Amino acid sequence: MFLKSTLCAATALTLITAGGAFADGHSATITIATVNNGDMIRMQGYTDGFTAETGIAVEWVTLEENVLRQRVTTDITTKGGAFDIMTIGMYETPIWGSNGWLVPLNDLSAEYDAADLLPAMAGGLSHEGTLYAAPFYGESSMVMYRTDLMEAAGLEMPDAPSWSFIAKAAREMTDRDNDINGVCLRGKAGWGEGGAFITAMSNSFGARWFDGDWNAQFDTREWSDTLNFFVNMMNDSGPAGYATNGFNENLSLFNQGKCGMWIDATVAASFVTGDDSTVADSVGFALAPDNGMGVRSNWLWAWALAIPAGTQQEAEAKQFIEWATGKGYIEQVAANEGWANVPPGARTSLYENANYQAVPFARMTLDSILSADPTNSTVDPSPYIGIQFAAIPEFAGIATEVSQEFSAAYAGQQSIEDALEKAQAITNDAMEAAGYR
User: Which domain, by its residues, includes 377?
Assistant: First the structure.
């Protein structure tokens, strides 16, 4: 609804006149690659105000999550120069920052107040203490559920449920005749889609990607338990075709009243309780499930704005980042759309604001973020940092292939045993080729 036409950097250059201004009257144009989720689309609707204030025009390239990751990774590794700002996350930022591929954000203005960023977010978007991306919003994951269906099932959601409770509740809430699925979860291939969910889930089952010597661990009972539990629960209580459902597909199902529970990004809370949701008045929240092993299945993530090194619009890009991720933008959205719709999870001051504390999901979102520990994400020790990913350059490629095998198992195209056997081989071969083993 707020999407603007995309314009590549090369085309933008043709607008420059001999005097250095643009033919359309703007002093500069920046091109931003971003993800097609609700918060980012909302931000695009406010961009005209930024342009009016600064004279800087903004052109958007808005992409589905998996495609965005491919495009920005290709562009930055080949120095393509298509974008002045990229929307990236906690996986890419430290790696790209250490490679010198991103502009440091250590000179943002005093008014921006970088010290106000939640430590979990600033830390995950830094390398050796230097911030390389500014969080537009931060998230963990949690349970969102239909309070009316839970009550009808004669159950009460605990604040910190177990996976066994989730499976039981899902069976009780499933009503195939009325197209209600007890639980909706990501099965879509992609390391940041279904791959992120199943990895976070596996942590609570005692699984891990690698042992201390970087050997793959998919041949373990813990991974078998994870996938078998997931597939059995989804076959019993999930929607048809869940193997191709990601964040956006499950959001749509939940808002249509077709899910009893949805375990996903905390940022979704404002959408399932918003005007587009048919069940907005009957939504509750709980921590992501565990198995009593000391590790919950919630992740930690931020969608953040970063500037690729080599951009010709560094100063203008920093102006935009300060505008989009600053306190003023939060206040602007709150004034126009209510506090429930501001970007969550990025700033300490937001959670100290009495207006925001009244939002029904604010406390559970913060509790979920604070309970996520990327340095101790697995039951048994692991050699990597990260919850739903391992923070090594090779992970994205490996996990994309592994997630494809898992999705094929969810779709019934191969057995769980075959998927895990392939995942083991894919991962060990890649790690040996990369010199880890």
Answer: 141-298+373-433
